[in-house]
Amino acid sequence: MGNPTSSTPDTSKSEPLPPGMVIGPDGKPCKICTAFRHWKPPGTSKPKKAAAAGTVAATTVAAITNSDTDIRPAHCPPDVEILGRATWTFLHTTAAYYPENPTPAHRTSMLSLLKSLPLLYPCVHCAAHLGENMKENPPKVGNRFELSKWLCERHNDVNVRLGKEKFDCAKVDERWRDGPPDGSCD
Ligand SMILES: Cc1cc2nc3c(=O)[nH]c(=O)nc-3n(C[C@H](O)[C@H](O)[C@H](O)COP(=O)(O)OP(=O)(O)OC[C@H]3O[C@@H](n4cnc5c(N)ncnc54)[C@H](O)[C@@H]3O)c2cc1C
Questions:
Q1: d(CA 135, CA 26)
Q2: Does any domain span residue 75?
Q3: What does the pLDDT look like over 82-117, one tens digit per residue?
Q4: Mean pLDDT, rounded, for 107-132
Q5: Does the CB atom of residue 61 touch ligand 1 within 6 A?
Q6: Residue 140 phi/psi, 5° resolution?
Q7: pLDDT-derived band of residue 45, with 50, 70 and 90 as boundaries?
Q8: Do residues 87 and 173 both lie within one domain?
Q9: Per the CB 3.0–4.6 Å rule, which of 60, 97, 108, 157 could disulfide with 56?
Q10: Is the same domain home to 170 and 114?
Q11: Within a 10 A sphere around the Cβ of 39, how many other Cβ atoms?
């Protein structure tokens, strides 16, 4: 697979896309890169018509905003947000239960898992951003504390890119392993 961003079409020539719609490396609207509410807003029976290919750069995926209203029917394939929440849940939880003293096999497997994401993650723009980020910030798999912190920081990099608040990385165990001190999750 080539670098998705390298095939990003020229953005200067055509009309703007509907807000939130993301173009994939093939020049067509990218369903798994777009939030469902932008792909199919309430009251529409068809996906929003996309403008000519190449109207929005891959990086404008960051324009997608968060919403409390999930209008996506449960039987539909995931959009960029459902996939993102599920992936973060898996990754943070796996980090939270990663050993404090991992064996070489643990380290190798975790590195393999993390390094596979830029290649395999279905939202190619997300994957490309992650790959660039991981070049500057190589995964830390020495123990569960440093892995959880590293992952929290990578998630925060995405949060910032999307205009969201940073998560307090001191609270990763509370969020992904222990639950809050008030016992409400026990
Ligand atoms: C590798 C990756 C790259 C992505 N890139 C993009 C992208 O380029 N564009 C795009 O539109 N979407 C991207 N996403 C999806 C995006 O990150 C969100 O998952 C999605 O927007 C839904 O956001 P959310 O607000 O529901 O919570 P999420 O960001 O999915 O977070 C889920 C929960 O994790 C907790 N949390 C939040 N931040 C942290 C943190 N730093 N550490 C630990 N826990 C935390 C919070 O309790 C939150 O409710 C990406 C997802 C992944 C896994």
A1: 25
A2: no
A3: 999 999 999 999 999 999 999 999 999 999 999 999
A4: 98
A5: yes
A6: -110, 110
A7: low
A8: yes
A9: 60
A10: yes
A11: 24
Domain check: are 49 and 90 in the same one?
no
| 80 burial type by CB count under 10 A (0-12 exposed, 13-18 middle, 19+ buried) | buried
In this structure, are 51 and 140 located in the same domain? no
Identify the band that residue 18 occupies on the pLDDT scale cut at 50, 70 and 90.
Answer: confident
| Same domain flag for 61 and 85 | no
Residue among 119, 155, 165 to mutate when testing ligand 1 (max atoms within 8 A of CB)? 155
Q: Of the ranges 16-25, 60-69, 128-137, which one carries the lowest mean pLDDT score? A: 60-69
User: What tokens were used for 9?
Assistant: 């079409």
Token pair in block for residue 155: 């998630």
The reply to whether 141 and 57 lie within a common domain is: no
- Ligand 1 neighbour 125 (Cβ under 6 A): yes
Least confident of 2-6, 34-38, 83-87: 2-6
Query: Which structural domain, as residue segments, surrounds residue 60?
Result: 7-65
User: CB-based contacts of 29: which residues, under 8 Å, 6+ apart?
Assistant: 17, 21, 22, 23, 39, 47, 50
| Mutation test residue for ligand 1: of 65, 88, 167, the one with most atoms within 8 Å of CB | 88
Helices 144-161 and 80-96: angle between axes, nearest 10 degrees: 160
Domain boundary among 42, 65, 88: 65
